[in-house]
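Ops channel
N.P.: pipeline sanity check, posting one input/output pair.
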């Protein structure tokens, strides 16, 4: 299944957003800034001349994601748990603090729920006190196991509130509620983006997401494990495209609050993805099927009409190109890990 939204974007619209993004240098707070997505946000903002404060307790993020920026005077790292209040002067806040892969958020479901709810609350309180615009990294998981496809922002979702994924799904849904209540009640400037499956360099090899699972298994010659029949679909957005969408959202006009879908509308079955990874890695791995995961969505595909219209944004990196970059990243990491182990054994 390869359904893709097509049509030219406004060149003028793209240029206007790029000028705003690279405009006057700002002080920007990124919660969860050492994570997969957070570190890419930090890196891109610094490259544009902004000063970045990374707030993270490193529970799922990694310091090494920011090691190449450690000596940059524009980066400041604060070790802090967003479940506790903070007050940091900033022009813009990107709220990215949360476990995001099922193994991580299911390992501490109560902590995950509180990170999303209290993390949103404290980001909003900080924005209320400083006048900052705060951007929320929500998720396509708010749609649950959708009964309609593609998923539009007006769809209220089909979420199991008592299942093992609810700590994350409901945490993000509650966070969205807080954002819009603070906007209506206190005039806080907000923007909410719903992230669909995103992949690329700096994913953890053990994070339990489908692309990292398949790539690592293929490179190591292990069986590729599919949960269920493999006919469930996903839409995969390369990380550079997603970050571009967030930056455009951050400088959009105040009325553009979202929620707004950010993802690649190209739709693939999990089985198609597994076969593609095996082919691209030249692996001899087999595909094996395990029991389906509880509440695993059968279909996931964003409608990005709103992002195209309001942000002049759409993904540029197609799956095969993004996978090539991701496979190269994991191949390098795994080779380095093997060398380190061999060195210790000598």
């Amino acid at each position: 299944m390869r359904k893709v939204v097509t049509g030219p974007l406004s060149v003028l619209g793209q240029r206007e957003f790029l000028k705003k993004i690279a405009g006057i240098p700002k002080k920007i707070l990124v919660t969860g800034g050492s994570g997969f997505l957070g570190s890419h946000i930090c890196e891109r903002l610094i490259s544009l001349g902004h000063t970045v404060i990374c707030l993270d307790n490193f529970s799922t993020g990694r310091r090494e994601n920011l090691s190449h920026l450690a000596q940059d005077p524009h980066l400041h790292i604060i070790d802090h748990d967003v479940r506790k209040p903070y007050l940091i002067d900033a022009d813009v806040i990107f709220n990215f603090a949360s476990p995001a892969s099922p193994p991580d958020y299911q390992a501490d479901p109560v902590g995950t729920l509180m990170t999303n709810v209290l993390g949103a609350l404290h980001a909003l309180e900080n924005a209320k006190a400083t006048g900052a615009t705060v951007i929320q990294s929500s998720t396509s998981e708010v749609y649950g196991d959708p009964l309609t496809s593609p998923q539009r922002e007006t769809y209220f979702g089909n979420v199991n509130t008592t299942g093992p994924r609810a700590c994350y799904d409901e945490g993000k849904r509650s966070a969205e509620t807080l954002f819009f209540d603070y906007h209506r009640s206190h005039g806080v400037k907000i923007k909410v983006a719903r992230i669909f499956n995103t992949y690329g360099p700096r994913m953890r090899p053990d994070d339990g997401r489908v692309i990292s699972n398949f790539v690592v298994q293929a490179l190591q010659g292990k069986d590729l494990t599919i949960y269920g029949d493999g006919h469930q679909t996903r839409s995969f957005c390369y990380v550079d495209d997603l970050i571009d969408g967030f930056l455009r959202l951050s400088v959009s006009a105040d009325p553009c609050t979202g929620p707004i879908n950010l993802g690649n509308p190209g739709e693939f079955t999990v089985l198609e993805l597994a076969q593609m990874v095996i082919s691209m890695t030249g692996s001899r791995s087999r595909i094996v099927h395990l029991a389906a995961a509880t509440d695993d969505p059968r279909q996931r595909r964003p409608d990005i009409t709103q992002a195209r219209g309001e942000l002049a944004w759409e993904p540029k990196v197609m799956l095969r190109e993004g996978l090539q970059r991701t496979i190269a990243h994991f191949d390098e990491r795994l080779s380095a890990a093997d060398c380190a182990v061999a060195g210790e054994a000598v």
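N.P.: looks fine end to end. The first helix runs from residue 11 to 21.
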